[in-house]
Amino acid sequence: MAVDKPADNLKPARMAEADILRGQGGETHQVARGDTPVLTTQQGVPVADDQNSLRAGARGPTLLEDFHFREKIFHFDHERIPERVVHARGFGAHGYFELTESLSDITKADIFQRAGEKTPAFVRFSTVAGNKGSPDLPRDVRGFAVKLYTKEGNWDIVGNNIPVFFIQDAIKFPDLIHAAKQEPDRGFPQAQTAHDNFWDFVSLSPESVNMLLWIMSDRTIPRGFRFMEGFGVHTFRLVNAQGRSTYVKFHWKPKLGMQSVAWNEALKINGADPDFHRRDMWNAIQNGDFPEWELGLQLFDDAFADKFEFDILDATKIIPEETIPIRKVGRLVLDRVVDNFFAETEQVAFCTQNIVPGVDFTNDPLLQGRNFSYLDTQLKRLGSPNFTYLPINAPKCPFAHFQQDGHMAMYNPKGRANYEPNSWGPAQGGPRETPERGFHSVPVVESGEKRRVRAELFADHYSQARQFYLSQAAVEQTHIKDAFVFELSKVETPAIRARVVSHLLNVDDALAKRVAEGIGLDAMPAAAEPARPVIRDLKPSPALSIVGNAPNSFKGRKIGVLVSDGTNADVLKGVMEAVKTEGAMLEFVAPKVGGFTCSAGKKHAAQQKINGGPSVLYDAVVVIPSAEGAKLLAREATARDFVNDAYAHAKFIGYAESAKPLFEKAGLTEMDEGMIALNSAADARRFVEACRKLRFWQREARVHAV
Ligand code: HDD
Q1: Where is the Catalase core domain (predicted)?
Q2: pTM of model > 0.90
Q3: Given 160, 161, 210, 393, which residue is catalytic?
Q4: Which domains are delineated in the chain?
Q5: Given the CA of residue 233, which atom of ligand 1 is nearest to it?
């Protein structure tokens, strides 16, 4: 029978040693003592019991009087803020920018004056289309947003890992994003462009074609944030003390070189570890292996802008590095993870209009529109114009202004003056303008008819797409073809598929034919009519290939070592040493996560159990179970997948002869040069050196029949 009186085990029972409370279900709870902070309400009232709400009787109703319960639930109910309308899924880290050469002749920006000086930075990487909880490896552009806390204010370079964009005018942005995200009637697909609406929109917007080539390339399935380039995309200006303006494009070059995964691998990573990119960055920073990029500038003047074959205000075009070389002027190092994801990564508010004296905008119509959008969106997201006071957004230099009040006003002016000019004198009158140090816009003369129009040079949508395609290595061209075929195979409307191919005919005949064949198009469409009739054959730009610019080092990468009890101790030691010497990492994947005992009788901890550590999580694999272990693993489907996937994804595979039964059961009977037998420490070294090529791409053609 139910009783209306507290049972004995509901009374807080003080445990002798540990200061433990026992809750209703007999579970235990720490009680504050010594240095442990006291749990309080938001008002600072110490809380006696956080396990039970206030009730009228043990089985009676909860009382409205329970202010602690109400406060706790009230706050919880309001925890979520609107996610970003784009770039919702992101990951941020702190670090610094260090200038390596003074640019005082080109800009008066304080950050660029003194070589060797460090400026605090916060960087948030993101995908674009997916919601906050979407996986890290959809095919998507990655955001690369950098906040630099300079001594003369915050400067945000809100860029991407691709130097061009889909559209030329910001007025098209809502259409682009609506088309890319989930379709409005069904609410799917999540985090992917492989659907009708996206391809419908872009195939009706030829200005997107250059970007389409970039997003169908391996750039949109990066191995990690650490292995991506970043770009400011637009042309900006740097302005020196004399007021002279130089055009500039910003580039971030990863120290570890660029690297991407294979598409089939990306699909599987999303299941195996949806946090693959954030975990990679978190682990790298926590291990002291700080991700680093060089800041490169392409600097040019009006004379170049006038003679360049494209408009420097057109964000769908690049200036090839071979035309304007990149000048490396500093490095960006990320050396600290956030203390709190929400407070920093979620609340950070990047705004393209956050620039500093010595930097200025150009008339790029995409940039001009962005300058409105970012400030506006932060108000929606963060709920108050005082978002600039949040520690992650506040400048680290002194700031003083007369903006006041609003929700969550945290820093309020003292005294009487909240306007200027005022006559309250230096002590009480508040801050004053400073014409010498203050921000001045470059005094460009502007004139023209008020019309909705685009400049003529914006009209060539194909030449640079062709240049990008022809600058890729053969294996990269195949990946681009495969990506088009994959995406268009998810498009249900045949006319949209054909329309995309009609654009590809203006990019490269062979590509268009391969894609048409891949999707089984019945008849080749006519080429899309270009707005600008002449499609030019531009010189390929070798800098645009990932494979052609491979790092020749395996540093920062990770090997998955499939082991079992009895794994040969000498080979194991050889692999561990070679990996360490290279500056790479390894993880043991074993039948049991508790670990394995090698042939020398030593117990090693494993990082993954075989069914949670598929080979897609690694850049290369080593398969060295003992003969007994191989027999066991041969009967385990996930172990067979481990070697099969590593093979299909063109990974280098180091193996012991004893692993052969596993290979045979997995159907891997043909060995190739990407598979290296490991019998000694010297073999292990050779293997890790072979891994510097990152992938054994020659194998790929053999594993894809359709
Ligand atoms: Fe944007 C976020 C990059 C065009 C409007 N954008 C956002 C972020 C990045 C970019 C990296 C995430 C920032 C963060 O981590 O918080 N966006 C770009 C680039 C573009 C671009 C490189 C083209 C060159 N964006 C663009 C246009 C518009 C916007 C044309 C609107 C007219 N973007 C936004 C936004 C977002 C945003 C709605 C969503 C969340 C936010 O701003 O803070 O305002």
Answers
A1: 40-428
A2: yes
A3: 160
A4: 1-79 (4.10.91.20), 90-207+223-389 (2.40.180.10), 458-547 (1.20.1370.20), 554-703 (3.40.50.880)
A5: 24
